[in-house]
Write a structure and sequence with these properties.
Layout lengths: L5 E3 L16 E2 L5 E3 L2 E2 H8 L3 E5 H14 L4 E5 L6 H9 L3 E4 L2 H9 L7 E3 L6 H10 L3 E4 L2 H10 L6 E8 L21 E2 L4 H10 L4 E7 L10 H21 L5 E3 L13 E3 L1 H19 L5 E4 L3 H4 L3 E13 L2 E6 L8 H5 L6 E3 L7 E7 L8 E9 L7 E5 L20 E5 L2 E6 L4 H7 L4
Parallel strand pairs: 5-22, 6-7, 6-15, 7-8, 8-9, 9-10, 10-11, 10-12, 12-13, 13-15, 17-19
Antiparallel strand pairs: 1-14, 2-3, 3-4, 5-16, 16-17, 16-21, 18-21, 19-20, 22-23
Helix pairs in contact: 2-9, 4-5, 8-9
């Protein structure tokens, strides 16, 4: 069985475009295009900050997963980024959808996504979450705590059954940061395999006639760039499924191994090789089930970041440039309100000057946002032209995942728009949040 699955992001020679969408191209005088659309023109037309999303890149990454997992279910993790257009792209490319709230669920269904191909997650599902899921008929609800078992069973209508899975903590530590490692005890998700919580939950679900247990689920972390943690989790999940068979005489037909597939944010960084992961999981599942003596369950995976992250570019306008001690600060018109990830997880990006040809050599700079926080840093210790000045445009690649979905109203600057680019055209998907939007929510006196 092949287990190595770390690949380095291509560097595209010396141009630094290895982590940009595959459609990225150069034009004269520093122009940069994505899907045939010049980013500087997008900035002029829609303003800045602006998120630019390459539709072709998203669709291509969906197809990569379908090709790598032809006999499995691939669910796009909507928390990474969701809009009506994204729902349509995912649907047309044949993926399912994994959602974490009634808001995500209802947006997807009203945009035409089949509810039976949706999985609902959440460590603390609200009454509205569960009510919407049952009313709309979601395909699976992933049980994350013992209390949910009775709640869901009581809410299922007379004569109906709801398909559910049990989320298991398999005791595997993986992920790019402590805050996104979810496969071990001591964090809020799932039910432990080690202390028997998962097994007890399975027994309780099987005793509920209103619930149909279709399988087990686990999610071990995010931004994982190696296959080995998934293979370890797979072996432990298969052992638990064999235990269910032995204890209850029930052969579970499904196994969902979640997502968390890592991508490169800067040239040369490692990324998970999806094809190698798929082969390793397929071989490991076949071997494990053969040894345990039960049929191979249908596999499911839930990529989010790996589908949409590399398809996005954030474009900012420089507002100020100043020297403080030995540091060159380049302040832009966005920041932690449209991308909190550097502050939360220490993510490092590779911003680039666009829209004009520089006349000076590179200089180490720190790109900061406009917000009243010392931690509002988008990219520290990066190279930008020494002549960078106010009015310039700076683009940040790999900005498609967890940017808009985690954006906030901090300092009331308003969240940026999302513009899709495809085959030489640009169109607005999500409009900019306006001051009027912010004022309308404030109804008190």
């Amino acid at each position: 069985m092949t287990t190595t699955s770390v690949v380095a992001a291509p560097a595209s020679g010396t141009d630094g475009l290895g982590v940009w969408p595959a459609s990225t191209g150069r034009r004269a005088r520093g122009g940069l295009t994505v899907a045939g659309v010049e980013l500087a023109e997008v900035a002029e037309r829609f303003g800045t900050p602006v998120y630019v999303l390459d539709e072709g890149e998203v669709r291509g990454r969906c197809r990569t997963y379908k090709e790598a997992f032809p006999a499995a279910d691939v669910y796009y993790a909507a928390k990474a980024f969701l809009s009506r257009a994204m729902v349509r792209w995912v649907h047309e490319e044949g993926l399912g959808l994994d959602v974490c709230s009634a808001g995500e669920l209802e947006l997807a269904v009203t945009a035409g996504f089949p509810p039976e191909r949706i999985v609902l997650h959440g460590n603390a599902k609200s009454p509205r979450d569960l009510g919407s899921a049952l009313r709309l008929g979601v395909g699976r609800i992933v049980i994350d705590s013992p209390s949910e078992i009775a709640r869901i069973a009581a809410a299922v209508g007379p004569g109906d059954r709801q398909k559910v899975m049990v989320r298991v903590v398999p005791g595997v530590s993986a992920g790019g940061h402590d805050k996104i490692r979810t496969g071990t005890d001591g964090q809020k998700f799932g039910l432990s395999a080690a202390d028997g919580s998962a097994a007890r939950a399975v027994a309780r679900v099987l005793a509920q006639p209103q619930l149909e247990l279709t399988g087990l689920h686990c999610h071990i972390g995010s931004q994982i760039t190696e296959a080995e943690p998934y293979l370890t989790a797979l072996r432990r999940m298969v052992a638990l499924m064999a235990g269910v068979r032995d204890a209850h005489g029930t052969v579970l037909p499904e196994l969902d191994l979640g997502g968390g597939h890592g991508i490169a944010y800067r040239p040369g960084e490692p990324a998970l090789d999806v094809a190698v992961l798929a082969r390793g999981l397929r071989d490991g599942l076949a071997e494990g089930c053969a040894a345990a003596g039960f049929p191979v369950p249908r596999l499911a995976v839930e990529p989010g970041r790996a589908v949409v992250g590399p398809a996005g570019v954030a474009v900012y306008r420089v507002l100020a440039v100043k020297h403080t001690g030995d540091t060159l600060f380049v302040a832009v018109d966005g920041g932690m309100s449209d991308n909190p990830r550097p502050a939360l997880y220490g993510v490092r990006y590779a911003p680039r000057l666009i829209g004009r040809a520089p006349t000076a050599g590179p200089r180490t700079a720190t790109v900061v946002g406009r917000h009243c926080e010392a931690g509002d840093v988008l990219a520290a210790g990066v190279e930008l032209p020494g002549d960078v000045r106010p009015g310039d445009l700076v683009a940040v690649p790999v900005a498609g995942a967890y940017h808009l979905s985690m954006a906030s109203g901090y300092n009331m600057v308003g969240r940026p728009p999302v513009v899709a680019v495809h085959e030489g055209t640009a169109r607005l998907l999500v409009r900019r949040e306006t001051f009027e939007d912010l004022r309308r929510r404030d109804v008190g006196e």
